[in-house]
Amino acid sequence: MSIESPTLGGRLQGWPPFIRELDATLSVHSQYVLSGNLYDSFLTPAADGGGHGQLLPLRALLWETLRSSGASFMAVYDPVDGLQVIPGPGDPGGDEAAQAAERLLGKLKPDDKPSLEALTRLLAAMARPKENVRAAFVIDSASRIARTPTDLEPAERDFFRVCAKLSRSARPVRVPGARPKPLYNPIVWLVERPGDLPPWLTTDNETIREITIPRPHLGDRQETARLLARAFGISDVGEDEVAAAACDAFAEQADGLTLQSMIEVTRLAKERNVDLADLPDAVRTYKLGVLDNPWSRGHLRRRVLEGERRVPERVIGQPQAVTKTLDILKRAVLGLSGAQATRSGSRPRGVLFFAGPTGTGKTELAKAITELVFGDESAYLRFDMSEFSGEGSGDRLIGSPPGYVGHEAGGELTNAVREDPFRVILFDEIEKAHPRILDKFLQILEDGRLTDGRGNTVHFSESILIFTSNLGMFVPGRDLALRDASHDPGMGTRVQNITPGMSYEEVQHRIKSAVADHFTEVLNRPELLNRFGDNIVVFDFISAEAAHKIFDLQFANICRRVTDEHRLVLTVKSEPLATLREWCTEELDKGGRGIGMALESHFVNPLARALFDRDLGPDEKVTVTGIRREGGIVHLDLT
């Protein structure tokens, strides 16, 4: 491929920006450090000058660029393959390249793996050529040369010292052709991160240029999708509106992927006999590494419809919260979450923010959703965010960064989602998390992915995220005073914001206002509040009617447990049962959990005390005839 252009400004039009930057600065920089997206393929104009472009790996891209500037060969060294010359034997121009390399670098052995001392001599010959030969030297996997960039061994230190000196003492070369002006024979370092080289090598060294290779943007992915459409027998996407729409959808779904990954997705699709229009499903398979998608199961819609009956029986007294949650779940099943956005495919399947009084069923509803979708309530993953209040506690979620203890283990959240991306993930009491952790949630909610401490990307596009919070139960006294002029709380105090007996509309308004104030005024994270949007589901205090239903349910569980464990027939007379019901349901602000704790204190404990010393036989009948309090202790009368 020959590229001729009389002016520098017209060179390499349509090529990746980073390669044009390198090409344009060969006259002023003797060394380059390339980092970032090194292992991708890159879009370039077609070799024949036609309408179709082509995809080249980085080595080929560098060689085509350097050859267009008059380079005779490109030497490539990496610690595994040793030293190679491009073009190689059998390639067009391979013999001429070998001769030029021998003139400049001396006799080279095929696949030679030179020591650092020998590599130093080769780099010196390249930077200060004795022959009028234009070439380049690429050091691949340069991150692996030094054990650690800040603690070099003597041989490593000497090698990089020479490289630093060579960067300043390099001599440009003139050759006839498209670019007759003096250009350096560049030494190109390929590193995973710029910090993988000794910092003193590039600091205040204007002869070394650092260039970061970015991941492809949407335009690159769209052009690549059109190139890959040829694998499905479509030679000109521009003339096929359906194919063009499918390519655009493919490019949008491939957000976060490299162009090389898009090539692999296309191969995967061809192996599974997937059509061009169904490539987004192949993208999901590639990202998640799984073939079975619970969201595509035919029975899921039926299960959700059944959930309209089953969930209210499990989460008692919260009709508004259950209805809104099921609406959001239906949206997730149909794949319509975030449908209003230009690109929504990579976002989580569903996002819910449960807020309201404690003990009203927030965690229970999360379990019910999990059982509804995945058939097993234990499939949900729970994080108590009170354990993540420290600044560095976020490492538990995504893993420690390189160099820190536990880096190899990864993060609890990222490991679990990588293992099984089809999950309900519950973040309990989100307001107790450190503010820096909230930035991680912002990335998940917006992009549907998170990079762990090991540099691996985890995708949340098939997960349901549930955040719970007790925000709004109490507010600073001054805020409440502004809302209610008849109330005059003391300055600096926290007072109850909502109370049993308020209408649901008032509870909902006050809690949503408190949540908004917390994220905008206290945390200064309005963007996170915007990501939750209208997915904030407010739970009400349980009513007296709901409290009695919860009492009956939990009381029946206790009797069943006694029967299962001890084969006893337990009966409670109506009078003590009424007294017990009154005691357990008198504090509605503690919710269903408060009823359970009261039952344990007022019934389970005295029942265990009464039964413990008795010699009971199987199928024996035990009847509670009375219940009383004496000195703060509850006693049961049994017959």
UniProtKB/TrEMBL annotation:
GO terms for molecular function: ATP binding; ATP hydrolysis activity. The lineage of its organism: Bacteria, Bacillati, Actinomycetota, Actinomycetes, Streptosporangiales. InterPro entries: AAA+_ATPase, ATPase_AAA_core, Clp_ATPase_C, ClpA/B, ClpA_ClpB, P-loop_NTPase. Residues 542-635 form the Clp ATPase C-terminal domain. Pfam families: AAA_2 (PF07724). One of its GO terms (biological process) is cellular response to heat. Residues 348-492 form the AAA+ ATPase domain. This is AAA family ATPase. Coiled coil: none annotated. GO terms for cellular component: cytoplasm. SUPFAM superfamilies: P-loop containing nucleoside triphosphate hydrolases. Keywords: ATP-binding, Chaperone, Nucleotide-binding. It comes from Actinomadura livida.
